């Protein structure tokens, strides 16, 4: 069982260096955690870590299926997309919580960094694809996943971070300092093509 503190920095199978998670400054956290839950100890047999190139086999896509339509994805496609993300160094931070008892991913969230010219060649962050497995909800894991990435974004020096969510999830995201913006959010969907 690989514990959080033992995640190796030189393991090339991770999407990003696990050290980034270990170096988070939790003093900047805006929410509190019950039951002594922490990044180093998310629960019995659970470990938080970056997405790994073999997570296709740990039910990562099945978990995303609890959030939205995933479609049929072969292992080769998963691996290719993973490698593309990894090559965009400093852009994709996908974290997961694995249940080591069953080798299953039971929680995930993503931080995507946009690299800009504006704001003195600044960076902005987006939180996406937050989901906790049905059986593990209400155990502080969603909070841990989002808080961790908000703090990673802060450490990376983004000038702002945003997300889109359903109205009923607004109170959840307010825990991390997100506020409803008065700007209009516009969208055009091409989903029927896929
Ligand atoms: C939303 C979600 C990620 C929350 O994860 P979770 O592990 O169940 O939540 P946690 O146990 O970490 O924390 C929930 C806390 O937020 C509060 N909360 C507020 N609004 C909430 C909401 N809409 N859903 C869940 N918790 C909410 C809870 O009261 C709880 O407070 P507490 O810590 O004081 O008890 C999870 O319910 C989920 O995967 N939902 C389906 C997918 C989804 O909607 N994802 C978000 C897409 S924008």
From TrEMBL:
The name on file for this protein is: Glucosamine 6-phosphate N-acetyltransferase
Cite a single GO BP annotation. UDP-N-acetylglucosamine biosynthetic process
Q: What is its EC number?
A: 2.3.1.4
The protein's organism comes out as: Dimorphilus gyrociliatus
Which enzyme class?
A: transferase
InterPro entries (alphabetical): Acyl_CoA_acyltransferase (IPR016181), GNAT_dom (IPR000182), GNPNAT1-like (IPR039143)
The text of the family note is: Belongs to the acetyltransferase family. GNA1 subfamily.
GO molecular function list = glucosamine 6-phosphate N-acetyltransferase activity
Q: In which pathway does it act?
A: Nucleotide-sugar biosynthesis; UDP-N-acetyl-alpha-D-glucosamine biosynthesis; N-acetyl-alpha-D-glucosamine 1-phosphate from alpha-D-glucosamine 6-phosphate (route I): step 1/2
**CDD domains reported for this sequence:** NAT_SF
- Which of UniProt's keywords are assigned here? Acyltransferase, Transferase
Domain of life, source organism: Eukaryota
Q: Which reaction does it catalyse?
A: D-glucosamine 6-phosphate + acetyl-CoA = N-acetyl-D-glucosamine 6-phosphate + CoA + H(+)
Q: Where is the N-acetyltransferase domain?
A: 46-194
């Amino acid at each position: 069982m690989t514990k959080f503190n033992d995640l190796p920095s030189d393991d090339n199978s991770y999407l990003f260096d696990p050290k980034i998670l270990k170096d988070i400054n939790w003093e900047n956290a805006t929410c509190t955690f019950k039951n002594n839950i922490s990044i180093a100890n998310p629960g019995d047999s659970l470990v938080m870590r970056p997405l790994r190139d073999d997570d296709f086999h740990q039910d990562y896509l099945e978990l995303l299926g609890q959030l939205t339509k995933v479609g049929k994805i072969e292992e080769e496609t998963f691996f290719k997309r993973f490698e593309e993300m990894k090559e965009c160094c400093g852009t994709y931070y996908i974290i997961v919580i694995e249940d080591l008892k069953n080798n299953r991913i039971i929680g995930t969230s993503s931080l995507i960094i946009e690299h800009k010219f504006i704001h003195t060649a600044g960076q902005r962050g987006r939180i996406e694809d937050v989901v906790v497995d049905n059986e593990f909800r209400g155990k502080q894991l969603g909070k841990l996943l989002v808080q961790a990435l908000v703090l990673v974004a802060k450490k990376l020096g983004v000038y702002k971070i945003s997300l889109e969510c359903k109205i009923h999830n607004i109170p959840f995201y307010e825990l991390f300092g997100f506020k409803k913006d008065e700007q209009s959010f516009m969208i055009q969907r091409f989903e029927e093509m896929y």
